[in-house]
Design a protein that fits this description.
The protein is of the alpha+beta class. The chain has helices at about 1-20, 75-85, 115-120, and strands at about 25-35, 45, 85-95, 100-110. The chain has one domain. Strands 2-1-4-3 form a four-stranded antiparallel beta sheet, with helices on one face.
Length: about 120
């Protein structure tokens, strides 16, 4: 009987831990563009998944000047998003021809509790 009550208690604890709320994440994709033959800078496009228009310019711009934000390397761009709380999940390359390779970076960020509830209500 004592073993049965310990087993039931242990099972109850494990079920309680399974029922805990799992963190919710939002994702974004960053694509590096460049450098061009006229510049040694990279620009990036960031898709946060909230644009409904296909022709929206997703290149990252400086909010103060409106000019394209330029990076000296792909890693500088990755670090820029990491400083904003984004965690790198995966990287892959799309090869279009022998000279054009696009590097895609998938990031995730834990959502605040109120943001997750807003999305669930939609």
């Amino acid at each position: 009987m004592k073993k049965l009550s310990i087993l039931v208690f242990s099972l109850g604890l494990s079920l309680t831990s399974l029922a805990q709320e799992q963190p919710k994440y939002e994702y974004c994709e960053m694509v590096t563009l460049g450098p061009s033959i006229f510049s040694h800078y990279f620009t990036i496009e960031v898709d946060y998944g909230n644009e409904k228009e296909l022709r929206v310019d997703k290149r990252l711009k400086d909010p103060e000047t409106g000019e394209l934000r330029r990076f000296y390397s792909r890693i500088e761009a990755v670090n820029f998003l990491a400083r904003q709380g984004w965690e790198l999940v995966e990287v892959f390359t799309m090869v279009h021809n022998e000279t054009l390779h696009n590097y895609h970076y998938i990031f995730k960020k834990q959502m605040e509790e109120n943001e997750a509830k807003e999305i669930e209500e939609q």
